[in-house]
Amino acid sequence: MKLKYYVLGLVSACAFTSCNDDFLERAPKDQLSDTSYWQSKDDAEKFANGIYRYLVQPENHTIMTDCYTANAIPVHVTAEQGQLSAGTADAFNPHFYQLWQEAYYGIRRCLIFQEFIDGVPMDEAAKATMKAEVQYLEAFFYATLLKYMGGVPIMDHPLALGEALPARNSEEEVYTHIVNLLDAAAPKLPSIRTAADQGKASAGACMALKARVAYYAHKYDVAETAAKAVMDMNVYGLADNYEMLFNPEYEMCNEIIFAKQYNANPANSIEGNKIIQFFAPVMAHGWEALSPTQDMIDAYECVDGLPISKSPLYDAANPFENRDPRLAYSVLWPGAEFPRGVDQTIVKFDNQNMGDGSHTRTGYSMRKYFDADEYPLRVYYQCDFIYIRYAEVLLTYAEARNEQLSAPDASVYAAVNQVRQRISVEMPALKEGMTKEEMREAIRHERRIEFAFEGMHLFDTRSWKTTEEEVTRPVWGIDKEGKPFQVETRRFNPARDYLWAIPQKDVDLSNGVLEQNPGWK
């Protein structure tokens, strides 16, 4: 059963959002108090469920971040994402404020929950589980802020109306706070959630998130141990259909460790997302907002496991044949066929309107997430959005362990090969006898391909300090005749662009308390 995101507005929360009708039915607006709400397990559960709605946006703040790497560019060049991709954004960019605001809305609600939950009359074991669930959510919000913006203020209480944010904590302090929250939560949560409480935090989600933040902090011993803990739970695995993993039919598969839940027949942006609206091709009534680059296309190996520059299977006249199956599952190229509508009518993608401001700029479009049944498109889409899946755990384990060895051992190969050789992908195993450096590059390649357009690559490259090299490569695509052409060049300021700005609005309001990230002043 999916979570229902309740929007509850308490007096102490109304600095950020107005009280909604569901809650007002419980007490008149002029008589509301925090303690008037926390009367039962049902009250606490509704409040906890409502926190999930503040998880980072899938569309603009996750999938679209591939446009700030060599993987893709945005179609709408004059919009906020166009500025971010081109390297011309300033500290007032709305994406910075939206991300910051929603994360702190979520953190605030976590703190309110922990402040009042102890007084709720309910089973103590259930209470402990619910408290741990909210600790995980707080950790997730901070992990989101950390990877986008670096060190941020750590809150120890919900701010009162008009109370300013405190000064920023260091990246190391935020990392430690996240790990402490996850370590405290994990023992009190089930390894994996059942259908009855699908979408809620689990011990597996705690350890997978810990592995991720430790990996990005280059604390490879911690990342390896946390990832191995998830592997040793023996409850997670890889889906047998990479293409369908991102469709509703696979929402319950055990590859998904943590996802944002959406409702069937969603009526608004709380109940549903706009992933298909944003990224489906225009010929399927989408906005075609992300254009994969030729660099991304060329990164997919041939089915013999060799890059296109070395494989005898690669045919420049038929460049999409004999390629890693994940290319066809993730990208549309001119002539690529895909089903559309409940009758599964086969249509062919074309790029004949490319470059008009509403269609692809590179000749390619995104296929991942597309659901043939969603045609004609509804405004809101019901499929859950995956934040963490088991393939990431395996590849994080592999790279973290490899970094601590003089040469990769059998466990490193096994973890990577599980991902490469899943049913429906079935790429060859990695060659034996690789050096540590060769294995590092192989794993990083695998992460780029496996998680294309899932909002991972920007943060991977930031961790590897390769974003500058990627972004400053000329962007290439194919024109209407299929010939290569240079689309654009982009800027990247390494002294600034490895972090997003703290929203300038809040920096200005802080009267010098909040310090801006370098280069954004």
**Globular, elongated, flat, extended or rod-shaped: what is the shape?**
globular
If strands are numbered along the chain, what order do they take across the biggest sheet? 1-3
Q: What percentage of the residues does DSSP assign to strands (E)? A: 5-15%
Tally of DSSP β-strands: 10
> How do the helices and strands follow one another from N- to C-terminus?
HHHEHHHHHHEHEHHEEEEEHHHHHEEH
- Low-confidence segments, given as residue ranges, are 8-33
Structural class: mainly alpha
- What level of helicity do the residues show? 25-40%
> How far is it from the N-terminal to the C-terminal residue, by CA?
47 Å
Structural notes for this entry:
- By secondary structure, this protein is mainly alpha-helical.
- Helix content is 37%, strand content 7%.
- The protein has 18 helices and ten strands.
- It has helices at 21-24, 34-37, 41-51, 80-86, 94-116, 124-149, 171-185, 203-216, 220-232, 275-279, 294-299, 325-330, 390-403, 410-420, 436-450, 457-464, 467-471, 504-509; strands at residues 72-74, 256-260, 290-292, 331-332, 337-340, 345-348, 365-366, 385-389, 475-478, 484-488.
- The protein has a two-stranded antiparallel ribbon with strand order 1-3. A two-stranded antiparallel ribbon has the order 2-8.
- A hairpin with a 5-residue loop joins strand 9 (475-478) and strand 10.
- Helix 3 runs parallel beside helix 6 (124-149) and helix 8 packs antiparallel against helix 9 (220-232).
- It starts with 20 loop residues before the first helix and ends in a 12-residue tail after the last helix.
- Residues 8-33 have low confidence and may be disordered.
